[in-house]
Structure formats: structure tokens, C-alpha cells
Amino acid sequence: MTDASTSTPPRRMRLNFHVFGPLLAMVAVMVIGASLNLSFLSPENLTNVAARSAFIGIIAVGMTFVITAGGIDLSVGAMAAFVAGVMIMVMNALVPVMGAGVPLIMVGMATALLVGGAAGMLNGVLIAKVRIEAFIVTLGSMGIYRSLVTWLADGGTLSLDFTLRGVYRPVYYEGILGLSWPIIVFAIVAILGELAMRHTAYGRHCAAIGANEQVAVYSAVKVARVRMATYVVLGMLVGLATIMYVPRLGSASGNTGVLWELEAIAAVIIGGTVLKGGFGRVWGTVIGVLILSLIGNILNLASIVSPYLNGAIQGVIVILAVVLQRESKSAD
Amino acid sequence: MTVPILSAKEVSRSFGPIQVLFDVDFDLRPGEVHALIGENGAGKSTMMKILGGYLAPSGGSLWLDGAAVSFADHRQAEAAGVIMIHQEFNLALQLTVEQNIFLGRELMRGPFLDHAAMQAESRRQLEALNCPLDPRLRISDISVPNRQMVEIARAMGRNARVLIMDEPTAVLTGRETEILLDQIDRLRASGTAILYTSHKLDEIARIADRITVLRDGHLVTNASAADLTPDQMAEAMVGRELSDLFPAKREGQAETVLEVENLTVPGHVRGASFTLRRGEVLGFAGLVGAGRTELMEGVVGLRKTTGTVRIMGKTLAPGSVLAACKAGLVYLTEDRKDKGLLLGKSLRENLTLLALDRFTNIRIDTAAEDRALTQAISDFDIRAGDRGMNAGNLSGGNQQKLLLAKTMLAEPDIVIIDEPTRGIDIGTKQQIYQFIRQLADSGKSVIVVSSELPEVIGIATRVVVMGRGFIAGELEGNAITETAILRLAMGTQDQEAAPA
């Protein structure tokens, strides 16, 4: 993460907190964690935290673009559960045909990306073309996906075929160079996202639309297309996160991915992206995700505060992050 | 001489290291209209905000009724009867006229709002201003000049003794301006002290009793209005003699570059046809509401239309700004704050937004963007305190120059400029007229849409006049006069609509 901070162009002092705030907060969290429990800083613990945050993290990167362009997506948690359900059903159904091997896993992965992309497209069309408010559309689709997966599982759990689990397991539990696949995929998504946000016309257009849609229209930006793309990409990233998530438990139910959408949105906001759009930064989102996971981890390791208060502490952090960033803004 | 209600003595103000106001004296007396004029960035807004309690002075003092005061904020100033009416109105669009007039000081009957009393009082206030509006209308449904009246009614309802008016006529037509000036006469007669600003100097000559001219934050002239002609005002503002405001005209070439045929913008314009030649400056005149902006937005694909637009003989795909831009046709909006610039973004990001593909090869080349900004700053004389500043912190004239630079970066052949000098000081106006002339001389074609008749007459070699939603006629050469334009603009529809 120090890499991200040194690559920011030099700015005047007054902007510093706005820029480095999330980074400082993460350092503070780590110092607290280390002082409470020595095993906190062990590589095993940290990689475990990173791997667990990868699902939310991958989704939150996509969410950063949606929010930067002035939108919101409440449906991602339910969408993840739905994608996982469909993916498991498709793979189970194909075991007799294809056998429980790598090709079938590939088919499952393609299914996840496709279903995620299609679900995102549905949100995108309703928001960008039919022009219904994003909050309403995704509130509706959240309910739809959530109840669809419950219905598919008939109120219970959809479990992946047992032999397939064995084949699929390494995607979550193994990796290269001591890093598990979820961490690697999360890192790649984050780096590509950061590049797209900061260095491509697409990122610039997202920010322009979020800042003032009218100006974007008058500046020949294809507003509907860019906005729709933010939801499609987010849907595909939900699919990607599901691909990483399914081998961990090997099942999906109506309770899969509950509150993921709020955790993703919280991470985006902690990272310094403006909720009403116009400005976003992906590296901030990555730090936001890590801060939220580290807090949960510390509460589990240390015994001072009950882990049941995890949500309360995360809530305080989100509000604090916005307050601090606003104060540093009004100072200039 | 009467005692001033509110006066500023040797007031200064700095923003960070930059001083924008230097020891300025200014006073407002009952029953007097005191005009404050100067170029954009001369310090007028800062002075008004200090008087209205929105800003504290860095040096000097304010005096109210002969005693030194310092307003903690504008609410304190308002409590003392000093009320500022902003150029961008402070009205809640979704509330009614009555709700706005009484916002924050609602009349109560017991624990409930007294709607009847507030409505009656609003009606009375508006009638006193000769503006018989229904107080139950929403602000979003009434015209801009009527909103201006609501602002004034609201100020009067708060027992304003001092009224600070920031360019109240910038968005008004000639006739609406007359009504407003009559209202100001009435307020003056009733003893209100009025601070008035405008870039329209003939208006200043008509309404002001006294005039203070600011230049670069310094007071340069304070004189009775009777002693200054508009020319002298302009010279005092600019600090040099103004040669002719408009550059010499030159005829366009024979080649037609743009043909608009039977274009209809539903609800706004029907069956408009006109042509534009290479190297020509074509003026579009008409009353506010004639549909000029809507027609131009239709031409470039910002609105749904029927009809044909041909560029160099090729039919343009309708409804796509991008297609128009690629075909070399661009439109500069009249509404630079809401549609032209991203006020919260840097100059660089604003400059390249329209032509971003020229700077992008998967990655955006920020170094090239920076070079383009340097070029634009020198080409268009954009005066920015700091290259890293946001577009919203530029003065109006410099925002307009930035918008011009942004548009020209797309290298268009045909440029439509809507209200090129709205809310801009006279020195910058002259520069913008020069730019327009240079564009035409370099073989580009320009359409200038303007509500200021002297501007259209001064800059265009041919003028299309619009009535309500149709093209009423066309004037060329010496036939372009104010009376000819007005006659066409207000002429009876039946006679003029037929040829379109």
C-alpha cells in the first residue's frame, strides 16, 4: 500500500489528510491490533484476513465505479447468493455429462461471470436507459435475487457435488508464492481498477457523470453507456467474487452474502469516494475493505471487546471517516 | 447629505496570500441607488459579500447607523435589515412562492402554520412590486424574472433597509429589465438604500445615483452618476481607452458548410431552415423564449428533432452529440455553470473532457493534457491564480474562456456559441469578440446566439431572427438594425411563419 501513496502526485499540505487519511487509519488499526495480540501481525493471520476480505474487496472495486458515477447498487449481496446458487446447480447438473473435472469447473466459472454480468445488465438497463433511480432499482432487484436463491434452494441449502468440491477446493485454499488465489485475484482487480479510474477515459467519464451529468451530456460523453457499463462490470465482479467464494464453503443458501452490499459501500466510503458521486479512488476502497476486515479480526483475537460489537465499531468507523474527510475539505 | 445606513471604511480582504480588496470606502444611503461596477475579478463580489455579512473584512471596518459593527454571519446582517440577493437565487425550487417568501419566519396560529395569512401577505408583497403572481405556484414553475421578484419580495418581507443586488438583470430581457428598474425606482422612493451591480452600463446610467468603480481591488472612481457617461465608466473599469468594442467584419466565403432543413424541436421550434457559410459569423437574435437555444441544441443532437442537418453536404445522424462533434460541429452552452463546466474539477480535466479521445491511447496522457492547458491559458488568456485550481473558482469571464478553450480543443469547423458574453465584463467581452473574429478568419464558421442586440449587430454579417418557435426572417449587411430585428422578432406570426 505504500506504493499507492508514493505514486500520488505531490500535493499541498492541506490536502494531506484527505489523501492519506484512510492509510493512516489502517496503520492505526494495525498498531492497535499488534499491541493487543502478538499473533496479529503473523503472516498466517494477515494472509487469512486478506483472503477473507477478497470477496467484498472485488465487489467493492466495482462499487467504487458505480458510486463515482453517481449511482448505488444495493443488490450485490443478493446477487452473489443467486450467482452462487445458479453456478452450483449448473455444475451439479453437468457432473453426469462432463464428469467432475477441471473442464466442469471452467463451465461453472463462465456461468458465474455470465449470470453476474446479466444481472448487472438488468440493473444497468433499468437505471441508465429506463432512467429509474438506482436506489429503487437495486432495492427491488435485491429482493428478487434474494428470494430467487431461497426458492432455488427450496428454503434450504444448495450444496456442490462432493467430488467436485475436492477439485474446486484449491481455488480458495491454494495459490502461488505463498499467496492464495483470492488474494491474487483481488490484487489484480484492484490494480486494474486503480488504473482504469485514474488513467483511462472511462474513469474520467465516470467522475464527470457523477459530478454533473448535464455537463457530461453536453461534452459528448456517452452517459447512458458509461453508466450501464459500471453496473455490468460490477455484476461480473460479483460473479468473480462468487467464483472465489463457492469453493470455501461449497454451498449457497438464502443467507449467503447477507449485508455484503453494505459492507462494500462502507468500504468505498471509508476509502474517500464521495457517496453522491464525482470523485472516486480505488486504492482507498482497497484500504477501506482491509480496515473493516482487520477490525473484525482484532475483535476475534483480543478479548477486551466482544466480537458481537464488530458491527458497531465498523459503523463508528464509517461515520468517522466521512466526518474527518469533510473537515479536511472545509479547511481549504 | 443624508447619513449612510451602512458604510465600509478602508475595507480590505485577502484570500490566503492573495489580496483582492485594498482599503475601499463604500457607503449606502437611504433613498439612493449606489452602483458598484468593475471587471470580473475587480473585487465587486467580495465587497458585496462583506457588506452582506457573508465574509468578514481582513482590515477596515463596517458602520451601521453611525456605529461600528461586525456581522458574524449573514443572518446578523439580515436581522439588521441588510439583505443580499444573489445572482444565483437562494430559492427552494420545489417549494411554493409563499413558502419561499416566509421560509424561516413562518407565520403561526397556535402550533400550526397560518396559511391564509401567509398567502394574503405574499400576495400583497408581490402586488406592491407590481408582480401579480399566484403565491401557490412552485418556484420551479415560474419564469426567471418572476423568481427575481420573489427574491425581492422576500427581502422586503424581512424589512430590508439595505438591498444588495448582484447583477439582477443578467438573466432578464429588455422589457423585464425595465419592470425591475421601475421597481427599484419605487424602492428608492420609499427610502431603501440599494447597492446595484451590472455589466450593462446603460442600465447603470439609467438607475444609479452614485457610481463606485473598482479595478483590481482598488477604488478608482466614486462619482455622481450624472458626471459619468457609459464610455467613461467603461474606461474607468478597464483602465485604458477602449477602442472599438467589435472587430471589423468580413464577409463569409461562398461555400455552404451547414444546412439545416425543416428542423422541428417538439414543443419549442417548428420547421426551422437556415444555412451557414464558411468563414461566416451568423447571428441568431430573438426574444427570450423564442427557441433559439432549443433550436441549436436540436441541431447538435442534444434534443430530439425531426428534419435534416447537413454538414458539408453529409446528413448528420440525429440525436448524437458525439456524431456532431466528430463531424466538426460543436455547441457552447449558455449555461456554463450547470452544463458547460465541472465546477468542482480542475482546469485540466475540464479542458480535455470534450476531446478526451485525443489524449487517450488506452491511458490518458496527462503530460499532453498539461501542455494543452498551458497552450489554452496563453491562447485564450485564461487568468487562473493557480493551474491546479478548480474551474468553479475562476471568475465568470475566465470560465467562459475555459469553456471556449475546451470546445476549440475538439478542433471543430463549425462553432455555435450561445450567449458568448453573458455576465462578463467589458474587457473580456472585447477579447471574446476578437476570438470569434479570429475563428471566422481562420476559415471556421460561427453561429452566435445572443439576447444582446448590440452584440449581434456588432459581430454578425448576417442575422437570423426568431419569433416564438419559428424563424421570422433574415437580415444582412446594413439592413441589420435594432428596429429591423425587433420588428421581425415581435412581428405577427401568421405573416412570418408561412415561408418557414
Key structural traits:
heterodimer, A: 332 residues, mainly alpha, ABC transporter involved in vitamin B12 uptake, BtuC, two-stranded antiparallel sheet, two-stranded antiparallel ribbon, 75% helix, disordered N terminus, disordered C terminus, B: 500 residues, alpha/beta, Rossmann fold, 6-stranded mixed beta sheet, 18 helices, globular
Q: Which secondary-structure class do the elements of chain B indicate?
A: alpha/beta
| Biggest sheet features of chain A | 2 strands, antiparallel
Structure summary, number of beta strands of chain A: 4
By CATH reckoning, the class of the largest domain in chain B would read Alpha Beta
Instruction: Please identify the top-level CATH class of chain A.
Output: Mainly Alpha
Q: What can you tell me about this protein's structure?
A:
The complex is a heterodimer of chains A (332) and B (500). Chain A is mainly α and 332 residues long. Chain A has one domain: ABC transporter involved in vitamin B12 uptake, BtuC (Orthogonal Bundle), CATH 1.10.3470. Chain A contains 15 helices and 4 strands. Chain A has helices spanning 2-7, 16-36, 43-68, 76-98, 102-129, 134-152, 162-168, 170-173, 181-199, 201-211, 213-218, 223-249, 260-270, 282-301, 310-330, and strands at 157-159, 175-176, 179-180, 251-253. Chain A has a two-stranded antiparallel ribbon. The longest helix of chain A is centred in the middle third of the chain and has 28 residues, at 102-129. The radius of gyration of chain A is 20 Å and the shape is globular. In chain B, α7 (201-207) crosses α8. Chain B has 500 residues and is α/β, with parallel strands linked by helices. The termini of chain B are far apart. Chain B contains 18 helices and 24 strands. In chain B, the strands form 6 sheets. Chain B has a 6-stranded mixed β-sheet, sandwiched between helices. In chain B, strands 18-21-22-15-23-24 form a 6-stranded mixed β-sheet, with helices on both faces. At the A-B interface, α10 and α11 of A face α10, α11 and β20 of B.
